[in-house]
Design a protein that fits this description.
By secondary structure, this protein is of the alpha+beta class. The protein has five helices and five strands. The chain has a three-stranded antiparallel beta sheet with strand order 3-4-5. Strands 1-2 form a two-stranded antiparallel ribbon. It is flat and about 55 Å long. About 15% of the residues are buried. It comes from Micrurus spixii (Amazon coral snake). This is Reverse transcriptase/retrotransposon-derived protein RNase H-like domain-containing protein.
Length: about 130
């Protein structure tokens, strides 16, 4: 069931945030949900709770995160004696990266993921600045 108020959404996002290192592009996926926590996107009810205005983008983000929790990738334990490969990318709203190493079958396997959304000022950067930041 989708969160119906600010407190429920914060609870879900807190849970999701704990697993963010296992989810590629977490910040981009969760963006519609984190935007709901902003003051302008919720209304106070008579009971004092903050009702949120849920959109189709929120439903998509919520369902995508739920699916990813059920099929989290297996992360490789880093071997400090081997080389690391870093892949990074930026979108209009977020930046993310993955730390990779080759496994014993010579296939790249993730060791960790990271991502975060851009601030309002960072969103105004040119695309080359966002990519360089990544």
């Amino acid at each position: 069931e989708v969160p119906g108020n600010k407190k429920q959404l914060q609870s879900f996002l807190g849970f999701a945030n704990f697993y963010r290192t296992f989810i590629p592009r977490f910040a981009s996926i969760a963006l519609p949900l984190t935007e709901l926590l902003k003051t302008g996107s919720r209304q106070k009810t008579q009971k004092g709770t903050h009702k949120i205005t849920w959109s189709e983008d929120c439903t998509t983000a919520f369902n995508t995160l739920k699916q990813m929790f059920s099929r989290l990738p297996i992360l490789k334990h880093p071997d400090l004696k081997k080389k690391f490969i870093i892949q990074a990318d930026a979108s209009d709203v977020a930046v993310g990266g993955v730390l990779l190493q080759y496994n014993h079958e010579h296939q790249l396997q993730p060791c960790a993921y990271t991502s975060r959304k851009f601030s309002a000022a960072e969103r105004r950067w040119a695309i080359w600045e966002k990519e360089a930041f990544a």
